[in-house]
Amino acid sequence: MTEKAESIFLCRMTRQEIVERVAREQRVETILRNIAKQPVTGDLEDLCQMVYIILLEFDEDKIIDLWERDEINFFIARILMNQYQSVKSPFFATYRKRQRKQVPIEDYMNLADE
C-alpha cells in the first residue's frame, strides 16, 4: 500500500462524522431551500431532521463511499425530492397531506359573503 493510500485509509470518516459535518455545513437545509423555493421553517425543518435520520440509518459503507466520491449532495437531493414530492413518502403522509386539507380562513370568509 502506498503512503497516500495509507493516509486515506487512516483518515477515513465514519458515517456519524460525515452526517455531523453535513449538519454543520447545513447542506440539507441549503439543498431543501433550492427544492422548496422557500425558507426552511416549520414543517421543512422537520423534513431536514428526517433526512438526517435517514442518513444516520443508511448503510455506513455506502454513505462513506458517497462522501469519498463527492456524491453526498446528490444523494441528499434525491432523498429530499422523494420525501418532499412523493405522495407515498413519510413526510407527505405526516405533513403535506394535512396541509392540502387545510383551507385558508379567507376562503371561508368569501363563501359567507356569497
> How many structural domains does the protein architecture include?
1
Shape: elongated
| Percentage of β-strand residues | under 5%
The average pLDDT is 80
Please report the number of helical segments.
8
Task: Please estimate the helix content.
Answer: over 70%
Order of helices and strands: HHHHHHHH
What separation lies between the terminal Cα atoms? 80 Å
As a whole number of angstroms, the C-alpha radius of gyration is 19 Å
Structural class: mainly alpha
Report the strand count: 0
* Spans where pLDDT lies below 50 across 5 or more residues: none
Question: Describe the biggest sheet?
Answer: none
What does this structure look like?
By secondary structure, this protein is mostly helical. It has one domain. Helices cover 76% and strands 0% of the residues. The chain has helices spanning 3-10, 15-24, 27-36, 43-57, 60-68, 72-85, 90-101, 105-113.
Describe, in short, the structure shown:
This protein has 114 residues and is mainly α. Helices cover 76% and strands 0% of the residues. Helix 3 packs across helix 6 and helix 4 packs across helix 6.
Provide keyphrases for this structure:
mainly alpha, 76% helix, 114 residues, elongated
Secondary-structure blueprint:
Elements: H1 3-10, H2 15-24, H3 27-36, H4 43-57, H5 60-68, H6 72-85, H7 90-101, H8 105-113
